[in-house]
Amino acid sequence: MILVSACLAGVRTRHDGTSRTNETVMRLIADQKAVPLCPEVLGGRPIPREPVEISGGDGYDVLSGRARVLDKEGNDHTAEILAGVDEFVKALKKFKADTVILKSKSPTCGFGDIYDGSFSGKLTNGDGVLAAALEKEGIRVFNENNCDIIMSAVKSGYDKEEHMADLYFLPEYPIYRDFDADDIEILAKICGENKYTNGQTVFRENEAGDGMYIIKKGVVKIFKENKARKKFIASLTEGEFFGELALIDGSPRSATVEASGDVELVKLSTESFARLKSEYARTGFKVTDVLLKFLSYRIRRTTKKAATLMKGRKIKKLKKTAKKNKK
User: Fold this and answer.
1) 114 inside domain
2) CATH of the domain at 208
3) Which has the closest alpha carbon to 57: 99, 100, 110?
4) pTM of the model
5) Which of 59, 62, 217, 254 could bridge to 132 as Cys pair (CB 3.0-4.6 Å)?
6) Total of domains in the chain
7) What DSSP letter does each residue of 228-245 carry, written as one string?
8) pLDDT (tens digit, 9 = 90+) per residue, 289-316?
9) Structural domain harbouring 175
10) Claim to verify: residue 12 and residue 127 sit in the same structural domain
11) d(Cα 243, Cα 255) in Å, to the nearest integer?
C-alpha cells in the first residue's frame, strides 16, 4: 500500500482550503493502491489555516529540536506538526505501507525542496518534517514530480515479478535524477538483486569482473589484499555504486568488497549492460553518462590527493635540507 498527501488526491486539505490534484495519485487511489492522508490535519490543524514555514533549518533540524515551524506572525506550530507526523507514521504501520507520495515544497511534506522560512516564495534545498521522519524510517519517498515511476511499477507488476529488481530508490539520489519512469522500468527488467550478511564477500581482488553493483540498503567496505593482510580503503553506503570498471574495460577486480552488516545490492552485469546499450540506447546512454561523471569525479579526487601528498613530501624535504644546512 502507498500513502499519499491528501491534497494530491483532490481532498481540500491545503492551508487555503484547496487541493492540488495529481493524475497519477488519483489513478493509484482508483486502483486501490493508495490511501490519502494529511499530516497537518492529523496533527489538529484546521482548514483553512495560517501557512507555516520552517525557521532555522529543515525537517531534520525540526526533529532534532534545532529548528521550529512558524507562521508569518512568529507563532509556533511545531508541536502540531510533530503530532501529525507521529500519526502519519502510525498509519504507515497500520496499512503496512513502504512508499509515500508527498506534496512538494511543503514544510511538512516537502521532499528535496522546501520554502526557506522567509514567506517570500523562495525555495531552499531540504526536506519537510514528515519527509525527514520517513527517510529515517527507511520509507521510499516521492513527490508529485516523480511519482509516475510508481505508476509504471504498478502497471508492470513489480510486486509480482520476483525477477525484476526493485529500483524505486534510485530517484532519491541526485546522481540518478535524470532517470524517468521508463528508464527505471527497463533497468528493473535487466538488473538482478543480491543480499549479503555481515562479513560476506561480494567479490575479491583480481577476480574476473562481471558487472557493477548499486547499494540499495546497507554499507559495504572496500579492502586491498596483500598476501594474508587486508588494508581498509573506504566504506560505501546507500545509493553509491562500485565495480563499474568491469562494464567499461572488463578488467579484473581491483579490490575486495565485503558486506558490513546486512546489505542489499542491485547488480547490472556486463551482459545486461551490453543488452542495455543495444536494445535500450536512451537508457544505456544515461547509465554511461552517470559512470563517466563518477569516474571523472574519482580521477579529480585522486589527482588532488596526489598533489597534496607531493606538496607534503616537498615541504618535508625542504625542512630536512634547511635543518641540515643549519648544522
Assistant:
1) yes
2) 2.60.120.10
3) 110
4) 0.56
5) 59
6) 2
7) TEEEEEEEE-TT-EE-TH
8) 888 888 777 677 667 766 676 766 666 6
9) 170-299
10) yes
11) 9
